[in-house]
Amino acid sequence: MRKLLFAVCMVASMAFASDINITLCQEKNYNCQVIPVKNVKNTEKVGNGTILRVNFANGKILDINILGKTFEIKKGKKAKGR
User: Which of 34, 48, 68, 76 gives a 20 to 30 Å CA spacing to 6?
Assistant: First the structure.
């Protein structure tokens, strides 16, 4: 019964996940890096705005240090890897 409930929860969480591209730049439109990320549930700033936290649909977390950098997040179908 637990396995069935876990499977239903995983399917439901994957339904709300999306693919995004995170663009980190040293300065505005200078020395940029694009990071394609899949199955993202949500993103948020933590640590006084110095860390971008990416929460995945499977429960894992990715923290990206954004101190002194600009960033842009693009969501949806256009967020394909380069």
Answer: 76
